[in-house]
Amino acid sequence: MTEDFVRERITQLRIRKGVSEYQMSYDLGHSRSYIYNFSSGRALPPLNELFAICEYFDLSPSEFFDDSTQVPELVKQICSEIKSFNEHDLNLLLALIKRIKE
Question: Residue 22 sits in which domain range?
């Protein structure tokens, strides 16, 4: 994991959410160049701000740093929905997932 990962991940998630650097900075309660400083590589967010950024994207820190998941917020939403499935429905879903992966 490198500093570039944090910069690129913030940019990726921000673009996916459809907000500008300025809007995200404003939403987090900072000056308009706050997120730009991270995106440009001028600075890294302090730990407390990284937690705020994770919360902004509705991600846990582990989800933020998991680059194997392309769309973590969607995976999180799917996982939340399937928690109420019964065993039969879960088996059907698993079969469908395996079939799609083929």
Answer: 1-66
Nearest CA among 40, 47, 55 for reference residue 7: 40
CA–CA separation, 93 and 97 (whole Å): 6
Which residues touch 36 (CB under 8 Å, ≥6 apart)? 21, 22, 25, 42
Assess whether 39 and 14 both reside in one domain.
Answer: yes
Structure tokens at 1: 């994991």
Co-location of 44 and 74 in the same domain: no
28 shares its domain with 55: yes
Number of CB atoms found within 10 A of residue 10's CB? 22
Based on the domain organization, do 4 and 41 belong to the same domain? Answer: yes
pLDDT tens track for 32-73: 999 999 999 899 999 999 999 999 999 899 889 987 877 878
Q: Give the torsion through C-alpha atoms of 64, 97, 16, 43, to 10 deg.
A: 20
